[in-house]
């Protein structure tokens, strides 16, 4: 990505995501629950990618960055819960418990990484190479 433009790989990824979402809706044969799941997942992913881009562009230690961090964690949590629900519904109970445990660990790990873990201040790489 240069000068704020999207790369071809990014565009191809979004085209692939859009095509697959459209095909999933088509294959759902009008099942409202399946259509809603695909539509919400698709919109969640689009929102997540947009917010991640905003997060990368925002200045460090700004209030905007902190708000975007909360939104990104919320979007990933919603997506994790939705996918875990779909997978766990197809599995026997012991495996479903494992799926939910892994989803919980992912959500809590993301919370820890985003909000509790403090990054250590590091010297820029050029200064480390000179020393």
From TrEMBL:
Signal peptide residues on this chain, from the entry's feature table: 1-24
Name of the protein described by the UniProt record: Uncharacterized protein
Phylogenetic placement of the source organism: Eukaryota, Viridiplantae, Streptophyta, Embryophyta, Tracheophyta
InterPro entries (alphabetical): DUF6490
Short name of one Pfam family: DUF6490
Keywords, in A-Z order: Membrane, Signal, Transmembrane, Transmembrane helix
Coiled coil: none
Transmembrane regions: 34-55, 67-85, 97-116
Organism field: Carex littledalei
